[in-house]
């Protein structure tokens, strides 16, 4: 049986693709707390394709750093397609990058609800041309497992998005 691919392997694959394409990446992370950026910056030479990362853990930081609307947060909550989309657009608008991944979710153990249980994570992948793809995943496991799997999904999604846009 083949071993599961690791976040560091995915980050390396992503880096090769971004270098070839001449594209810079920005991240906007909430529940992963900069873990995607950490995997990327562990790679020597990643400054050739990674420009910056935003860690916006609170609602106010999402508003101040990424321009997420207070009304969007009130209407939909921080863990929503609308907020993750605004996070992605804000990261692109506040950087020189052409590709972004944004992540917001509930890693647990608390904070979940019937509508948004622990393990609910929203992702957005977008480019500076305005193309965007969003996805919601329900990840099983404890806090660490939810966050770790979210990083892997984020990196896989970047590779898929880059291949199709």
Explain briefly what this protein structure is:
The chain has 165 residues and is an alpha/beta fold. It has helices at 7-21, 35-41, 59-66, 70-76, 81-93, 143-164; strands at 25-29, 50-55, 99-105, 120-127, 132-138. It starts with 6 loop residues before the first helix and ends with a helix.
Key descriptive features of the protein:
165 residues, alpha/beta, Maf protein, 5-stranded mixed sheet
Reading off the top of the CATH hierarchy, the class is best stated as: Alpha Beta
Helix/strand-derived class? alpha/beta
Low-confidence segments, given as residue ranges, are none
Q: How many strands in all? A: 5
Shape verdict = globular
With helices defined by DSSP (H or I, 4 residues minimum), what is the helix count?
6
Structure overview:
The structure is a single chain. This protein has 165 residues and is α/β, with parallel strands linked by helices. It has helices spanning 7-21, 35-41, 59-66, 70-76, 81-93, 143-164, and strands at 25-29, 50-55, 99-105, 120-127, 132-138. It contains 6 helices and 5 strands. The longest helix has 22 residues, at 143-164. It is globular. The protein has a 5-stranded mixed sheet, with helices on both faces. The protein has one domain (8-164): Maf protein (Alpha-Beta Complex).
């Amino acid at each position: 049986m083949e071993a599961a691919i690791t976040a560091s392997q995915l980050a390396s694959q992503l880096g090769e693709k971004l270098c070839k394409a001449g594209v810079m990446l920005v991240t906007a992370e909430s529940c992963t707390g900069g873990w995607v950026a950490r995997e990327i910056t562990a790679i020597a030479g990643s400054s050739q394709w990674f420009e910056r990362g935003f860690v916006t853990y609170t609602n106010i930081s999402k508003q101040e750093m990424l321009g997420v609307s207070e009304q969007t947060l009130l209407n939909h909550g921080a863990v929503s397609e609308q907020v993750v989309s605004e996070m992605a657009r804000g990261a692109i608008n506040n950087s020189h990058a052409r590709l972004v991944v944004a992540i917001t979710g509930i890693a647990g153990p608390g904070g979940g609800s019937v509508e948004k249980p622990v393990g609910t994570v929203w992702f957005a992948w977008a480019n500076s041309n305005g193309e965007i793809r969003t996805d919601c995943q329900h990840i099983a496991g404890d806090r660490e497992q939810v966050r770790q799997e979210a990083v892997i999904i984020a990196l896989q999604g970047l590779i898929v998005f880059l291949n199709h846009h």
